[in-house]
Write a structure and sequence with these properties.
CATH superfamily of the largest domain: P-loop containing nucleotide triphosphate hydrolases
Low-confidence stretches: 355-364, 429-486
Number of helices: 20
Strand content: 5-15%
Radius of gyration: 27 Å
Structural class: alpha/beta
Helix content: 40-55%
Mean pLDDT: 75
CATH topology of the largest domain: Rossmann fold
CATH class of the largest domain: Alpha Beta
Order of helices and strands: HHHHEHEHEHEHEHEHEEHHHHHHHHHH
CATH architecture of the largest domain: 3-Layer(aba) Sandwich
Largest sheet: 8 strands, mixed
Number of strands: 8
Strand order of the largest sheet: 3-2-4-1-5-6-7-8
Length: 486
């Protein structure tokens, strides 16, 4: 969503990095460009003016740090002030002293409330809680059935009955208490626009269940309209926070940058995709860092820790360095990586990756990874363990079985062999096989030649994704020295 804004900010900050002097004229020029970028992103004008004033005051009034030059200092100020605009600190969920903790979801139709209710239930389960979903949206056909389907996928019970929304919500609270559930999430009906009927119904539900948290679900793609909707709901419901959905869309993202300042309520969670896993706590500092092209390593690490089992990852790494890593291992690593989300999203979290990918016309093609998996699935167990046994006739059979070209099979086998050889060199050969000197003593010392292990000058690319396609892997990285993200 923030790709266009991020590109603009990267260009602006690139101009000021490394500058030895920044006077009032230079600061005003920078602020004018920031204003233009934010207006294009559909950010509220009042928010833009506030941000400009804060940056100007700090950039001209502060004594600059001795560690950073003036240009770097301004970059730091922009990052900090953008973080403030987004909410400053991550919202923490405090649980009720007497369970259940009641969460009420409100919003317009089409904002994604029902799916968000299920995603929120999954998030609470990951925190060690036992949620109950309550379907009080009786206006939209099949809304309750949709919630039940999602609940079944999560193994989370769903309560609803064919009466009226207020009665369903109250009965759901009693059911949560009876079952000993410590979190209740109530999904409510929406309308195409704000009206008195909608507001009265949600207000009555709120009075019946007395929620600990009232979250407004907002479609981030609605732009400035989202801010107006949030203001209207807040007047009647006393919102605690906002949940932004569809942050993976191609809208300009102004809602996310405006709601906190205009409404005065934090953004608690963000939905970044269609899958139930694409949901996370909203971290203002991390989003600000991503918007400015600085990556988001913390979220990347958290996703990896959530997805990869530590013991399995360590075992796979050991096999890599031993030279016993197989295509089955490689396939499992790709599956785990894809569980973390779209590859293009993950690349955006790596510092400097956006600059490395400049000039690439398209994002990483997930279809290519599908074909790669298809090729490996078309191999026999023996072929996956020993790809070197794959001759011409086997390649033809594998290509036909996976619906790919023989050249793609050949490329995968070749690149996997090269990667395996390189990793074996880095690991020093099979583990535990030490050379012995005279009288049976361990010779000790290195098992590879002195100096760095020679790596391919052309860089690494993911096997099977195209040897000369920058979008396919990590083409163009200087792996012989220095920071590849420069």
């Amino acid at each position: 969503m923030f790709e266009s804004l991020s590109n603009r900010f990267e260009g602006i900050l690139k101009k000021i990095r490394g500058k030895g002097r920044l006077g009032p004229e230079e600061i005003d020029e920078i602020l004018a460009e920031i204003r233009s970028a934010l207006l294009e992103a559909d950010v509220n004008l009042g928010v833009i003016r506030t941000l400009q004033d804060r940056i100007r005051e700090r950039a001209l009034g502060e004594e600059l740090s001795g560690v950073l030059n003036p240009g770097q200092q301004v970059v730091k100020i922009v990052l900090e002030e953008l973080t403030v605009v987004l909410g400053g600190e991550t919202m923490r969920i405090a649980y009720a002293s007497k369970p259940p903790t009641v969460v009420l979801l409100a919003g317009l139709q089409g904002s994604g409330k029902t799916t968000t209710a299920a995603k929120l239930a999954r998030w609470f389960k990951s925190q060690g809680r036992n949620p109950l979903l309550v379907g009080a949206d009786l206006a939209r056909p099949a809304a309750v059935e949709q919630l039940r389907t999602l609940g079944d996928r999560l193994s989370v019970p769903v309560f609803s009955e064919p009466s009226d929304p207020v009665a369903v919500a109250a009965a759901g609270l009693a059911e949560a208490q009876r079952l000993g559930r410590d979190v209740l999430i109530c999904d409510t009906a929406g309308r195409l626009s704000v009206d008195d009927g909608l507001m009265d119904e949600v207000a009555n539900i709120s009075a019946a269940i007395k929620p600990d948290f009232t979250f407004l679900v907002v479609d981030a793609m609605t732009g400035q309209d989202a801010v107006g909707v949030a203001e209207t709901f807040h007047e009647r419901l006393a919102l605690d926070a906002v949940i932004l959905t569809k942050l993976d869309g191609d809208a300009r993202g102004g809602a996310a940058l405006s709601i906190r300042q205009v409404v005065g309520k934090p953004i608690a969670f963000a939905s970044t995709g269609e899958n139930l896993e694409d949901f996370e706590a909203f971290h203002p500092d991390r989003l600000a860092s991503r918007i400015l092209g600085m990556g988001d390593v913390e979220t990347l690490i958290e996703k990896a820790e959530e997805t990869f089992e530590k013991e399995e990852a360590e075992a796979a790494a050991a096999r890599m360095l031993d030279g016993t890593f197989t295509l089955d291992d490689f396939l499992e690593q790709i599956r785990q990586l894809r569980k973390m989300g779209p590859i293009s999203n993950l690349m955006g979290m790596v510092p400097g990756m956006a600059q490395q990918m400049k000039g690439v016309d398209a994002e990483v093609d997930e279809g290519r990874i599908d074909r790669l998996e298809g090729i490996i699935h078309s191999m026999t167990v023996a072929e996956r363990a020993q790809p070197e046994m794959i001759d011409g006739s086997r390649r033809m059979r594998i290509a036909q079985g996976s619906g790919t070209q023989v050249a793609e099979v050949s490329q995968l086998v070749k690149q996997f062999r090269e990667m395996k050889k390189m990793m074996k060199q880095m690991g020093g050969g099979p583990r535990g096989k030490k050379k012995r000197g005279k009288k049976g003593r361990k010779s000790g010392g290195r098992t590879t030649q002195r100096g760095p292990v020679p790596l391919p000058k052309k860089g690494l690319s993911l096997p099977g994704l195209g040897e000369n396609d920058p979008s396919a892997g990590f083409e163009g990285f200087d792996l012989d020295g220095g920071n590849p993200f420069g």
